[in-house]
Amino acid sequence: MPDQTAEQPPETLEGWYALHQIYRINRERNTPAGTAESDVFKQTAGAADGWSEAVALIGSTSDVMFVHFRPTLDAIGDVQRELARQPWMRRLEPTYSFLSVTEAGLYHMTAKLAEEAIARGGEAGDKEYLAAVRAGAETERNSPYVQRRLYPQRPEAMPYVSFYPMSKRRAVGQNWYSLPIAERSRLMHEHGLSGRRYAGRVQQVITGAIGFDAWEWGVTLFAADPLDFKKIVSEMRFDVASAEYAEFGDFYVGKVGALAEVLGG
Asked: For the residues of 205-216, what is the DSSP string, one character each?
Protein backbone atom coordinates (compact mmCIF):
# COMPACT_ATOMS: atom_id res chain seq x y z
CA MET A 1 0.00 0.00 0.00
CA PRO A 2 1.51 3.38 -0.96
CA ASP A 3 2.48 5.79 1.79
CA GLN A 4 -0.40 8.28 2.05
CA THR A 5 1.93 10.94 3.52
CA ALA A 6 4.50 10.89 0.70
CA GLU A 7 2.94 13.90 -1.00
CA GLN A 8 1.97 15.76 2.18
CA PRO A 9 3.46 19.27 2.26
CA PRO A 10 4.45 20.62 5.68
CA GLU A 11 2.22 23.24 7.21
CA THR A 12 4.02 26.58 7.47
CA LEU A 13 3.72 29.83 9.36
CA GLU A 14 4.69 33.11 7.73
CA GLY A 15 5.66 36.49 9.19
CA TRP A 16 7.43 39.45 7.61
CA TYR A 17 8.09 39.77 3.89
CA ALA A 18 11.75 40.11 2.94
CA LEU A 19 13.56 41.69 0.02
CA HIS A 20 17.26 41.38 -0.71
CA GLN A 21 18.50 43.89 -3.32
CA ILE A 22 22.02 43.56 -4.68
CA TYR A 23 23.83 46.18 -6.75
CA ARG A 24 27.09 47.05 -8.41
CA ILE A 25 28.32 50.65 -7.95
CA ASN A 26 28.98 52.49 -11.21
CA ARG A 27 31.84 54.70 -10.08
CA GLU A 28 31.82 56.68 -13.31
CA ARG A 29 28.51 58.23 -12.31
CA ASN A 30 29.19 61.18 -10.02
CA THR A 31 25.76 61.50 -8.47
CA PRO A 32 26.06 62.40 -4.78
CA ALA A 33 25.56 59.78 -2.09
CA GLY A 34 24.07 62.50 0.11
CA THR A 35 24.55 63.05 3.81
CA ALA A 36 20.93 62.46 4.84
CA GLU A 37 20.07 58.78 4.81
CA SER A 38 16.68 57.60 3.61
CA ASP A 39 14.21 56.82 6.39
CA VAL A 40 14.29 53.25 5.11
CA PHE A 41 17.58 52.77 6.98
CA LYS A 42 16.45 54.41 10.22
CA GLN A 43 14.00 51.80 11.46
CA THR A 44 14.32 51.07 15.17
CA ALA A 45 15.28 47.55 16.21
CA GLY A 46 12.22 45.37 16.65
CA ALA A 47 9.84 47.99 15.25
CA ALA A 48 6.41 46.65 14.34
CA ASP A 49 6.83 47.90 10.78
CA GLY A 50 10.10 46.04 10.22
CA TRP A 51 13.62 47.24 9.48
CA SER A 52 16.30 47.53 6.81
CA GLU A 53 20.08 47.25 6.62
CA ALA A 54 22.68 48.45 4.13
CA VAL A 55 25.54 45.99 3.63
CA ALA A 56 28.90 46.61 1.97
CA LEU A 57 29.69 43.38 0.11
CA ILE A 58 33.18 41.90 0.31
CA GLY A 59 34.73 39.51 -2.20
CA SER A 60 31.76 39.69 -4.55
CA THR A 61 31.18 40.80 -8.13
CA SER A 62 28.64 43.22 -6.61
CA ASP A 63 29.20 46.01 -4.07
CA VAL A 64 26.04 46.66 -2.07
CA MET A 65 23.19 44.64 -0.58
CA PHE A 66 20.05 46.12 0.96
CA VAL A 67 18.05 43.82 3.24
CA HIS A 68 14.44 44.74 4.09
CA PHE A 69 11.84 43.15 6.38
CA ARG A 70 8.27 44.50 6.33
CA PRO A 71 4.85 43.22 7.49
CA THR A 72 3.20 43.22 4.03
CA LEU A 73 4.15 42.79 0.40
CA ASP A 74 2.79 46.29 -0.29
CA ALA A 75 5.16 47.71 2.33
CA ILE A 76 8.07 46.00 0.56
CA GLY A 77 6.89 47.70 -2.64
CA ASP A 78 6.87 51.05 -0.81
CA VAL A 79 10.51 50.52 0.23
CA GLN A 80 11.46 49.64 -3.33
CA ARG A 81 9.82 52.79 -4.71
CA GLU A 82 11.24 55.06 -2.01
CA LEU A 83 14.75 53.90 -2.74
CA ALA A 84 14.25 54.25 -6.50
CA ARG A 85 13.49 57.97 -5.96
CA GLN A 86 16.80 58.68 -4.21
CA PRO A 87 19.40 60.56 -6.34
CA TRP A 88 22.23 58.33 -5.16
CA MET A 89 20.44 55.25 -6.53
CA ARG A 90 21.52 56.36 -10.01
CA ARG A 91 25.00 55.15 -9.09
CA LEU A 92 23.72 51.61 -8.47
CA GLU A 93 23.15 48.97 -11.11
CA PRO A 94 20.99 46.02 -9.99
CA THR A 95 22.61 42.59 -10.30
CA TYR A 96 20.22 40.40 -8.27
CA SER A 97 17.15 40.52 -6.05
CA PHE A 98 15.34 37.96 -3.92
CA LEU A 99 11.76 38.24 -2.67
CA SER A 100 10.56 35.95 0.11
CA VAL A 101 8.77 35.79 3.46
CA THR A 102 9.98 34.64 6.88
CA GLU A 103 8.87 31.07 7.43
CA ALA A 104 8.61 28.42 10.11
CA GLY A 105 8.08 24.93 8.70
CA LEU A 106 5.89 22.78 10.96
CA TYR A 107 7.26 19.42 9.83
CA HIS A 108 6.85 17.62 13.15
CA MET A 109 3.29 18.83 13.70
CA THR A 110 2.29 17.98 10.12
CA ALA A 111 3.75 14.47 10.34
CA LYS A 112 2.06 13.80 13.68
CA LEU A 113 -1.37 15.02 12.56
CA ALA A 114 -1.16 13.20 9.22
CA GLU A 115 -0.35 9.92 10.97
CA GLU A 116 -3.22 10.45 13.44
CA ALA A 117 -5.64 11.14 10.59
CA ILE A 118 -4.69 7.90 8.81
CA ALA A 119 -4.86 5.93 12.08
CA ARG A 120 -8.48 6.98 12.65
CA GLY A 121 -9.40 6.06 9.07
CA GLY A 122 -9.38 9.61 7.72
CA GLU A 123 -6.81 11.49 5.70
CA ALA A 124 -4.68 14.59 5.86
CA GLY A 125 -6.85 17.45 4.67
CA ASP A 126 -10.16 16.23 6.09
CA LYS A 127 -12.25 18.30 8.50
CA GLU A 128 -10.73 16.88 11.69
CA TYR A 129 -7.21 17.25 10.35
CA LEU A 130 -7.75 20.90 9.38
CA ALA A 131 -9.21 21.73 12.78
CA ALA A 132 -6.19 20.17 14.50
CA VAL A 133 -3.84 22.07 12.16
CA ARG A 134 -5.47 25.41 13.02
CA ALA A 135 -5.19 24.73 16.74
CA GLY A 136 -1.61 23.47 16.53
CA ALA A 137 -0.47 26.31 14.27
CA GLU A 138 -1.90 28.90 16.67
CA THR A 139 0.01 27.34 19.56
CA GLU A 140 3.21 27.26 17.53
CA ARG A 141 2.82 30.86 16.34
CA ASN A 142 2.55 32.11 19.93
CA SER A 143 5.74 30.41 21.09
CA PRO A 144 8.71 32.77 21.65
CA TYR A 145 10.96 30.63 19.42
CA VAL A 146 8.60 30.86 16.43
CA GLN A 147 7.98 34.57 17.06
CA ARG A 148 11.74 35.18 16.77
CA ARG A 149 11.80 33.28 13.48
CA LEU A 150 8.83 35.08 11.95
CA TYR A 151 9.66 38.57 13.23
CA PRO A 152 13.47 38.63 13.53
CA GLN A 153 14.99 41.47 15.50
CA ARG A 154 17.83 43.53 14.09
CA PRO A 155 20.95 41.79 15.46
CA GLU A 156 23.08 43.73 17.91
CA ALA A 157 26.87 43.38 17.77
CA MET A 158 26.58 41.10 14.71
CA PRO A 159 27.65 43.34 11.81
CA TYR A 160 28.66 40.61 9.35
CA VAL A 161 26.06 39.21 6.97
CA SER A 162 25.92 36.18 4.67
CA PHE A 163 22.99 35.60 2.33
CA TYR A 164 22.35 32.71 -0.06
CA PRO A 165 19.34 31.13 -1.80
CA MET A 166 18.73 27.38 -1.81
CA SER A 167 16.33 24.71 -3.03
CA LYS A 168 15.63 21.03 -2.38
CA ARG A 169 16.53 18.50 -5.08
CA ARG A 170 13.88 16.86 -7.21
CA ALA A 171 16.18 14.40 -9.01
CA VAL A 172 15.30 10.75 -9.58
CA GLY A 173 16.34 8.89 -6.43
CA GLN A 174 16.99 12.19 -4.65
CA ASN A 175 13.59 13.84 -4.63
CA TRP A 176 12.90 15.64 -1.36
CA TYR A 177 9.27 16.10 -2.31
CA SER A 178 8.62 12.39 -2.71
CA LEU A 179 9.83 11.51 0.80
CA PRO A 180 7.19 10.69 3.42
CA ILE A 181 6.46 13.65 5.67
CA ALA A 182 7.74 11.70 8.70
CA GLU A 183 11.13 11.24 7.04
CA ARG A 184 11.32 14.90 6.04
CA SER A 185 10.42 15.80 9.63
CA ARG A 186 13.22 13.62 11.01
CA LEU A 187 15.80 15.06 8.63
CA MET A 188 14.79 18.66 9.31
CA HIS A 189 14.92 18.04 13.07
CA GLU A 190 18.47 16.75 12.69
CA HIS A 191 19.33 19.74 10.50
CA GLY A 192 17.90 22.18 13.02
CA LEU A 193 19.90 20.72 15.89
CA SER A 194 23.12 21.49 14.01
CA GLY A 195 22.10 25.11 13.56
CA ARG A 196 21.05 25.57 17.17
CA ARG A 197 24.57 24.79 18.33
CA TYR A 198 25.47 28.24 17.01
CA ALA A 199 22.85 30.08 19.06
CA GLY A 200 24.33 33.32 20.36
CA ARG A 201 27.04 33.25 17.67
CA VAL A 202 24.93 33.25 14.50
CA GLN A 203 21.44 34.62 13.99
CA GLN A 204 19.67 32.75 11.20
CA VAL A 205 16.71 34.15 9.27
CA ILE A 206 14.99 31.57 7.03
CA THR A 207 12.65 32.87 4.37
CA GLY A 208 10.40 30.94 2.00
CA ALA A 209 10.37 31.91 -1.68
CA ILE A 210 8.20 29.26 -3.35
CA GLY A 211 5.93 31.20 -5.68
CA PHE A 212 8.14 34.29 -5.37
CA ASP A 213 11.49 33.22 -6.84
CA ALA A 214 13.16 30.45 -8.84
CA TRP A 215 14.93 29.38 -5.61
CA GLU A 216 12.77 27.97 -2.82
CA TRP A 217 14.33 29.46 0.32
CA GLY A 218 16.67 32.22 1.37
CA VAL A 219 19.09 32.04 4.29
CA THR A 220 20.39 35.24 5.89
CA LEU A 221 23.03 34.84 8.59
CA PHE A 222 24.32 37.52 10.98
CA ALA A 223 27.46 37.05 13.08
CA ALA A 224 30.12 38.92 15.05
CA ASP A 225 32.83 36.70 13.58
CA PRO A 226 32.57 35.98 9.83
CA LEU A 227 34.40 32.67 10.31
CA ASP A 228 31.23 31.40 11.97
CA PHE A 229 29.57 31.49 8.53
CA LYS A 230 32.09 28.97 7.25
CA LYS A 231 31.73 26.80 10.33
CA ILE A 232 27.93 26.66 10.50
CA VAL A 233 27.44 26.13 6.76
CA SER A 234 30.15 23.44 6.68
CA GLU A 235 28.63 21.57 9.62
CA MET A 236 25.06 21.75 8.33
CA ARG A 237 26.09 20.51 4.88
CA PHE A 238 26.98 17.18 6.45
CA ASP A 239 23.38 16.71 7.59
CA VAL A 240 21.51 14.40 5.23
CA ALA A 241 18.90 17.10 4.54
CA SER A 242 21.67 19.14 2.89
CA ALA A 243 24.16 16.48 1.85
CA GLU A 244 21.63 14.56 -0.25
CA TYR A 245 18.84 17.02 -0.98
CA ALA A 246 20.08 20.65 -1.02
CA GLU A 247 21.17 22.90 -3.89
CA PHE A 248 22.78 26.27 -3.14
CA GLY A 249 22.99 29.51 -5.07
CA ASP A 250 25.65 32.23 -4.87
CA PHE A 251 26.76 33.52 -1.47
CA TYR A 252 26.85 37.25 -0.71
CA VAL A 253 28.96 38.25 2.30
CA GLY A 254 29.59 41.69 3.74
CA LYS A 255 29.34 44.09 6.65
CA VAL A 256 26.48 46.31 7.81
CA GLY A 257 27.26 50.02 7.75
CA ALA A 258 25.84 53.50 7.46
CA LEU A 259 24.44 54.19 4.01
CA ALA A 260 27.07 56.78 3.02
CA GLU A 261 29.80 54.41 4.19
CA VAL A 262 28.38 51.46 2.28
CA LEU A 263 28.08 53.55 -0.89
CA GLY A 264 31.70 54.60 -0.63
CA GLY A 265 31.34 58.00 1.04
From this structure: EEEE-TTTSSSS
